[in-house]
Amino acid sequence: MGEEGRVVAERSSLSFGALLRQLRTEAGLTQEELAARASLSARSISDLERGINVTARKETARLLADALALTGPTRRMFEAAARGQLRTSEAHSSTDDHAIAAAPDGMSAPGTAAEPRAAAVHALPRDTVSFTGRGPELAQLMSELEGALDAAGTGRVVGVHAIDGMAGIGKTTFAVHAAHQLASRFPDGQFFLPLHSHTPGQRPADPAAALGTLLLTTGIATKEIPDGLDARTMMWRNGIAGKSVLLVLDDAASHDQVRPLLPGTPGSLVLITSRKRLAALEEATPISLDMLSPDEAAELFARLTARAVAEPEAVAEITRLCGYLPLAIRLIAGTLRRHPSWTVADLAAELAATTDRLATMRAENLSVAAAFDLSYDPLTQAQQRLFSRLGLHPGTSIDVYAAAALDGTGLAATRRNLDDLYDHHLISEPARGRYRMHDLLREHARTLAEDDDPADRDQALGRLLDYYLHAATSANRLIGPHLPSGAPGIPAPQAGTPRWESSEQAAAWCAAELENLRACAEYAAGRGRPVHAIWIPAQLAEFLRIQGLRDLALSMHERAAAIARATGDLAGHAAALTGLGAMYHAIGQYPASINSLTAAVDLCRTLADRLGCADALVELGLVEILLDHYANAREALDEALGIFRELGDLRGQALAINYLGVLRYAMGDYRDSEAYLREALALYRSLGDRHGQAEVICDIGRVMVYLGNYESAISALSQARVMYADLGYRRGESIALQHLAVAKRCLGDYEAAARFLTSAMDLSTTLGDLHGLANGHSELGILQFDAGDYESAALSLAEGLKLCREVGDQMGEVETLNCLGALETETAGPARGVARHTEALAIARDTGVILEEAAALAGIGRCHLRMGNATEGAEHLRQALAIYERIGAPGAERVRQELARQPDL
Fold first, then answer.
1. CA 734, CA 889: separation in Å to the nearest integer?
2. How does 794-825 read in b/e, with b if 16+ C-beta sit within 10 Å?
3. Residues 33 and 156 in one domain
4. What span, in angstroms and rounded, lies between the C-alpha atoms of 878 and 513?
5. Cβ(569)–Cβ(547) below 8 Å
6. 707: part of which helix (H) or strand (E)?
7. For the purposes of burial, counting CB atoms within 10 Å of the CB of 451, is it exposed (0-12), middle (13-18) or buried (19 or more)?
8. How far apart are CA 688 and CA 681, in angstroms?
9. H or E stretch including 122?
10. How many distinct helices (H) and strands (E) make up the chain?
11. CA-based Rg of the chain, rounded to a whole angstrom?
12. Looking at residue 205, what DSSP letter applies?
């Protein structure tokens, strides 16, 4: 008995319902599609397949056979089974007779065969009317097909394309649609051959058996088909030699399964679909199918149910919950068709509320979960374990180090298993070395993990959380001034952590892992793991501050502080309060920052935690400077510097010295300030700390502006800006830009100043930095005043003054008031100017802002001179000159000239 006889014999033992289901599945049709093709109801198909109706009328059987494109003995067997009259012996005896009758030209009846020739077979399944999207993939296929043709239109090579993708992505649908689009180019035949790699209840097709099916399809008699793979391969290739045929090999298991089926001469096209990447099939061009775009997914849903048009928002939610997976969308659309009383919004709400989305994505014998199981079942035990454990991960992506920790295996074994999961399209690789699961696959993996021993699951998650805390701690050693004090000793992961050579590399890791670190801290908070919930945010504090991620930092630190307080972790509470204080400072909430940092200092003193105390004190000192509380700032910074020196902490020393330099120039002592800053810069350079260097260089640039060395200021500030940009520190970049604007304004380059200032204010707006915005508006007002645009200057200065008062920036307030004094002297008269300058003078003397004290005195003097009060005006100018000369500020020369113009005085 030949191959076809064996196939027919096997099928003859099936019930008519089972036979119908098998033939429909092989044709790639749903029940609804087969019903439409046969002009029958879907209910009729369902009743037949389920055995409710065990036989079918003659006309029904004919319609079904036509719809399934059945011919020869298979059709006769099908119609006999429909009437309940099938006898196995009939099926067997009819096979060879049909094969003889169907022999094509050039092929004799049983006996010796002439040179085999392929019949013009047109055996593609019906194209799906709801086919949607895949424009780039179709364009790729068409383009490469054109490239494989010579000028005469004959193929130079056999075109082989391997279409791969995860279960339910629509590989067969795409291949069949593409085949129909290309069919006219292959007049000698179009073949569709299921290879059953993932067909329930069937083994993957043996290559020899698959070749037998192909040869039978071309009309070769069963008796003339030789035994053995090599002989069948030769007959198949001889038969289609010189022909233009299109071959669709559906659901391939491996390159070994399909290689014998490939044509041997140019001019043909082969489309292979597989859930596995067929990397060993060198001649194949891969076409990997991804999820549909949101718009394409909505379009597919609309094609499947007309009700979608009126409820686009509900459709968008449904397709999102389906993960934009075509199979899931088709099954959920079928749910809507089965419930005509439901609206699309009803379905969206039902899907959103369910705790098991996969359970809802099914219809009859089709389900997304079953499709996923067919990809999972062939995996090795180690691969299955890793797949299910990946579903436990609280985040959305993973690298090999985290996967090794989760799985409790070494890097090499984990990397191999990840590669295998990737090849089976159970995970994707959106970036080199980073793996991600589709939402529905993650849910499926999590469901599988529920069958594992609870203790094993808990240990796996514990290893993962330990890894992330250990890695974040290692990264922070390079990013932050020092390791937060009191951090618990977490054992190093068995497979280790990534190695970083610089703070930039460590920061890049934090950026890549940020969502995972956030998710793990949140997971730990909800699962009674306080150590990880408290200390992961603590180790991220400096990174979050540098990146300006204020909302995330505040939420993480606030939750950590609450957990530490509730669990009595005083060291953790202090670390969380220090992180909170730094973020409150970054967003301009200075009183809140002072409160958090003061509480952190108190806790650290209670714990005798010298390093933690110094860390909070140095941050506190900077905030006190910004509030113009110079005595408090000096006290905090001096104490911090003493502790850092006692502990030999060079980074801490550099930071404290840097801030002492900032304090000196805030007080108007620019020469002393420069000396402190250059000492801090030398320390940072010795440590290779680029972030610290950028901070100090920016501060030096600011001092140069105050000293009137504008070209030197521009050089330093430009260097700092580039370094900040390279480091990704956007707030620092904003500060450098703002001071560049000041330097350019002082040189009279108003156009460049406006350009720098606009960029700075845009960054401050993005970061929500009220302090930066306050300074930006004030500086814009000064720029507009110098350019003669008094109306715009008044608006900008008013906004700057309001914001300075909101954030408690008294230094900014004094600067803005002095500029308003000069503006109102020109627009409202010198008496109004005196009032503004006098207000500024009082605040400057109260806070010790010496430079602005001099500016206020000079402004009052000029107003009095304009009002004719020469004696009083000159006296105020002399007081201003004395301050300018003492601090070496560039304003001294202008005041000297103004006094020189008063000869009688």
1. 25
2. bebbebbbebbeebbbbbbbbbbbbbbbbbbb
3. no
4. 60
5. no
6. helix 690-707
7. exposed
8. 10
9. strand 121-122
10. 43, 11
11. 39
12. P
SS3 label, residue 398: strand
Is 259 found in the same domain as 150?
A: yes
Give residue-wise pLDDT tens across range 428-439. Answer: 998 899 999 998
Q: Is the pLDDT of residue 755 over 80?
A: yes
SS3 270: strand
Is residue 814 in a domain?
Answer: no
Query: What's the CA gap between 395 and 317, in Å, rounded?
Result: 22
**Which is higher by pLDDT, 593 or 486?**
593
Total domains present in the chain: 4
C-alpha 239/C-alpha 115 separation (Å) is: 7
342 with 216, same domain?
Answer: no
Q: Using CA atoms, how far apart are residues 717 and 713, in angstroms rounded to an integer?
A: 6
Domain with 226, as residue range(s), is 121-288
Q: Report how far residue 812's alpha carbon sits from residue 795's, in angstroms, rounded to the nearest whole number.
A: 16
Q: For 844-864, give one letter per residue: b (16+ CB within 10 A) or e.
A: beebbbbbbbbbbbbbbbbbb
The CATH number of the domain where 126 resides is what?
A: 3.40.50.300
Q: Output the 3-class SS for 864-875.
A: HHHCCCHHHHHH
Please give the mean pLDDT across all residues of the chain.
Answer: 86
For residue 429, the surrounding DSSP H or E stretch is strand 428-431
Q: Is there a domain that residue 854 lies in?
A: no
Please report, for the domain that includes residue 49, its CATH number. 1.10.260.40
Q: pLDDT tens-digit profile of 174-229?
A: 999 999 999 988 888 899 999 988 887 778 889 998 998 899 888 888 888 898 99
What are the pLDDT digits (tens) for 91-104? Answer: 333 333 333 223 33
Sign of CA dihedral 339, 342, 346, 347: positive
CATH number (domain holding residue 427): 1.10.10.10
Q: Which of 144, 217, 199, 134 is nearest to 173 (CA)?
A: 134
Give the length of the chain.
905
> Residue 271, SS3?
strand
What distance lies between CA 534 and its chain's CA centroid? 25
User: How would you list the strands of the sheet with 269-274, edge to edge?
Assistant: 121-122, 189-194, 246-250, 269-274, 159-164, 285-288
Other CB atoms within a 10 A radius of the CB of residue 832 amount to: 17
Residue 658 maps to a domain: no
Residues 387 and 405 in one domain: yes
| Dihedral (Cα; 141, 147, 153, 157), 10-degree rounding | -90
Q: Please state, in angstroms and rounded to a whole number, the distance separating the CA atoms of residues 789 and 804.
A: 22
Q: What token pair was written down for 542?
A: 């400096």
Does residue 565 lie in a domain region? Answer: no
**Would you say 207 and 193 are in contact if contact means Cβ atoms under 8 Å apart?**
no
**Residue 822 CA: distances (Å) to CA of 554, 742, 749, 779, 825:** 40, 17, 20, 14, 5
Distance CA 66, CA 76 (A): 12
Q: Is 753 exposed, middle or buried (0-12, 13-18, 19+ CB in 10 A)?
A: buried
Same structural domain for residues 260 and 302? no
DSSP state of 355: S
Task: Quote the CA–CA distance of 453 and 299 in Å, as a whole number.
Answer: 43
Give the pairing type, strands 121-122 and 189-194.
parallel
Check whether residue 133 and residue 282 sit in a common domain.
yes
